[in-house]
Design brief:
The complex is a heterodimer of chains A (394) and B (316). Chain A is mainly alpha-helical and 394 residues long. Chain A has 2 domains: 53-316, ABC transporter involved in vitamin B12 uptake, BtuC (Orthogonal Bundle); 344-386, no CATH class. In chain A, 69% of the residues lie in helices and 0% in strands. Chain A is built from 16 helices and no strands. In chain A, helix 4 (84-101) crosses helix 11 (240-267). The two termini of chain A are 17 Å apart. With 316 residues, chain B is mostly helical. Chain B has one domain (3-122, 141-299): ABC transporter involved in vitamin B12 uptake, BtuC (Orthogonal Bundle). In chain B, 69% of the residues lie in helices and 0% in strands. Chain B has helices at 3-33, 41-59, 68-93, 98-120, 144-148, 153-171, 173-183, 185-190, 195-221, 233-243, 248-270, 277-294. In chain B, helix 1 crosses helix 7 and helix 2 (41-59) packs across helix 9 (195-221). The chains are: A mainly alpha (394), B mainly alpha (316). Chains A and B meet through helix 1, helix 6, helix 12 and helix 14 of A and helix 3, helix 4, helix 10 and helix 12 of B.
């Protein structure tokens, strides 16, 4: 099988997966009576039409990329962290509490301290799931989902109770929110008139850190080994349990930083609905970005675009913004399905046979001894032993 | 309110609360016994709750209004089956990793239900729902009658399904096949059992049950639909299957435990006991984690191939 066929095959899989995801979306769009083409056009192009739109995409991409980096660490280490939503909330609480408690600290101290507090909050919440998994064998998907619900209640409790802005109680409308975070803890806005803030640099910097951690340090190698094949890693002396916990701590810390950066850069106080599903979209971003920082950054921008575009469809195409959840779900299903076919010589061989049967053009026989010539040595006719190339068509 | 009636109240509330968890949990038991971990249960429940809500909402006042609930239940089961089969396509045929595919299905179900709900219904609207049907003589028994025999028909059906599912799983040839493909698919395959087909069937049944569970939430429990109606019950149902050691009776006990916790939480609020509302709501979720941490030693009774895709043509 030649290289160009391989490339065409992989490209066809990607196109098919994208078509399947968009097809599911199209069915739902048709069900709400929307113009499918127009709705997709609005989602994919409308946010790009002005400067505000473009900066807002980046504003959404910042927490998304941070969360996705954390999820990538966890996934690579063999633990499915679905709890970024809750970890982000804990990060927000820890970060805003720190900033509010220490308003007089000088700026160069307060900003890092607030972000570190956010990281600690997220790490704590992620670490719980990590310890439960490593020590007690608790399924991490279930525990992180439950921790999401618990964090959401805790978040509401603090915002309505102990951390609530006292002024809201006295004269305000009783909105559950904290007081404004002291100016010394704010992340600067990069472009005046937009919400684009310096958190973007933090996200880019941490992407580099995550890359070096996972691919250039022995700790990262051990984490990836534990995720790729726990048994083999254990035989090689890797303490799989310890690296599971470390991975969840780091994963939670990144989600916590996402929350912290979102508060210090965008909202400047803890309010309800800050996380708004970022934790779940982050999973899609991580998968879409191939669980690699170099893929996650562009993927986070793409999903920032989707989130913003979906908000706009409400007004411009009469499609509820929940549509973005449909697309995210469909994209996940498409990606995990497509991964089974990508670079799979066996499926590729099947596709080649099917094509040649359909169009009557025989594939050139694979050279003897190559992997294509003997997909399975247990086959009754063994081309490698017989020393003659196998016929691609029968 | 004295102590006796406080406890009685919890029991009366708790039994119907358990039904959604029980129905979904029974379906998930079959899925996991067949070796498939279906986290999409949550999304299927959301879809089931939504489509079941539609007939009573749109048929109100027409000649079909009387059978609207039945149509809704049937619709929810059909949609659940379809989503179960979609999940089977992804995890059985395409052999995708099940955990993450389940999260995809969950988002898809939430998304579709939410999108269609916003478009066709808009705000939270109530439906008459399924009326209680006290069982003639039995409901007159003091205490017991109120707790067990004074509910809507789905409650009785759900509890009757427990022995039915036990029978299916442990006494029928199909149940044996389900357990075989979840425990040792390669051996099952060599005996001529179509592993993929049995898993498809199990997921279709599990999907129908999750759809029904969702329908119960919107038609019988809440009598309305809202975006967050399911609120993690699908995930709790999955956790219950671990807790119940993959046995219908265990799942039933687990469902009762959780619904009683929920009823306790509501009763605490109603009784005006000073306890932060948010912490009361947390209770069932905390309970899930605690329970999961405690049941880890039960691993051996579970399907050993749970969560692993089966590839007929893979070398051993």
């Amino acid at each position: 099988m030649n290289k160009s066929f391989k490339f065409a095959y992989n490209a066809a899989i990607v196109v098919a997966a994208a078509a399947a995801a968009m097809g599911i979306g199209a069915i739902v769009l048709a069900a709400v009576g929307a113009n499918i083409g127009k709705a997709y056009l609005v989602i994919l192009t409308e946010p790009l039409k002005d400067m505000i739109g473009i900066t807002e995409i980046v504003v959404r991409a910042i927490p998304l990329s941070l969360i996705a980096l954390g999820i990538a660490i966890a996934f690579r280490s063999g633990i499915l962290n679905i709890g970024a939503e809750g970890q982000m909330m804990m990060g927000i609480l820890a970060s805003s509490a720190t900033a509010i408690a220490l308003p007089d600290l000088p700026r160069p101290l307060l900003v890092p301290l607030a972000i570190l507090a956010g990281a600690a909050g997220g790490a704590l919440w992620g670490g719980i799931a990590g310890v439960l998994k490593a020590r007690l064998g608790v399924n991490e998907i279930l525990s992180t989902v439950m921790l999401n619900y618990i964090a959401a209640q805790f978040y509401t409790f603090l915002l309505r109770g102990p951390m609530m802005d006292p002024e809201e109680l006295v004269m305000g409308s009783g909105t559950p929110q904290t007081v404004r975070i002291p100016r010394g803890a704010w992340l600067d806005r990069i472009l005046p008139g937009t919400r684009l803030h310096t958190g973007a640099f933090i996200a880019l910097g941490l992407a580099l850190v995550v890359f070096f951690l996972l691919w250039r340090t022995s700790a990262g190698f051990r984490m990836r080994a534990a995720g790729a094949e726990a048994k083999a890693a254990r035989y090689a002396g890797v303490s799989v349990e310890r690296y599971l916990i470390i991975a969840m701590l780091l994963s939670g810390a990144l989600a916590g930083i996402a929350g912290s950066v979102e508060i210090l850069g965008v909202h400047r106080r803890a309010i309800e609905g800050v996380t708004g599903g970022y934790g779940f979209t982050g999973i899609v971003v991580a998968l879409f970005g191939g669980l690699h920082p170099a893929g996650i950054i562009p993927a986070s921008l793409f999903f920032g675009l989707l989130l913003l575009g979906a908000d706009m469809t409400q007004r411009l195409a009469d499609v509820p913004a929940n549509m973005v959840l449909v697309l995210q779900g469909a994209i996940i299903l498409a990606i995990v399905s497509a991964r089974q076919f990508m670079n799979n010589p066996y499926a590729q061989d099947k596709a080649a046979r099917l094509l040649s049967r359909l169009f009557g053009k025989p594939e050139p026989p694979a050279p003897p001894g190559s992997i294509e010539a003997c997909p399975d040595p247990s086959d009754s006719v063994d081309p490698c032993l017989a020393g003659e190339p196998q016929e691609a068509t029968r | 309110m004295n102590g006796g009636s406080f406890v009685l109240n919890i029991l009366i509330l708790g039994v119907p609360f358990s039904v959604a968890l029980l129905l979904a949990g029974l379906g998930e038991t079959i899925n996991q016994r067949a070796g498939v971990f279906n986290l999409g249960c949550e999304g299927i429940m959301a879809m089931g709750a939504f489509v079941a809500f539609l007939p009573p909402y749109f048929l109100a006042g027409t000649s079909l209004a009387g059978s609207a609930n039945l149509i809704g239940l049937a619709l929810a089961m059909v949609v659940g089956t379809v989503l179960g089969l979609l999940f089977a396509l992804v995890v059985v045929t395409f052999r995708a990793p099940q955990g993450i595919a389940g999260i995809g299905l969950q988002m898809l179900g939430w998304g579709i239900a939410g999108t269609l709900f916003r478009h066709y219904v808009g705000g939270v609207t109530g439906v008459p729902g399924i009326a209680p049907m006290p069982i003639p003589v039995l409901s007159k028994i003091p205490v017991l009658g109120q707790v067990l025999f004074n509910h809507n028909p789905l409650v009785y059906i759900a509890f009757l399904l427990v022995p039915v599912f036990w029978y299916i799983l442990f006494k029928t040839p199909w149940g044996l096949k389900v357990r075989a493909v979840g425990t040792y698919p390669r051996a099952a395959d060599s005996l001529g059992i179509r592993v993929a087909r049995v898993r498809y069937q199990a997921l279709a049944l599990g999907g129908a049950m999750a759809g029904l569970a969702g329908a119960y939430l919107s038609l019988a429990q809440a009598k309305m639909f809202a975006d967050d109606l399911v609120a993690g019950r699908g995930f709790i149902a999955v956790a219950l299957v671990y807790f119940g050691r993959w046995h219908p009776v265990g799942v039933m006990l687990g469902a009762l435990l959780f619904s009683l916790a929920q009823a306790l939480q509501l009763s605490i609020q109603v009784a005006g006991i000073d306890f932060p509302y948010e912490f009361a709501v947390m209770l069932p979720y905390v309970l899930v984690i605690v329970v999961l941490a405690l049941v880890r030693k039960a691993r051996m009774v579970g399907p050993t191939e749970l969560g692993k895709p089966f590839d007929r043509e893979q070398r051993v």
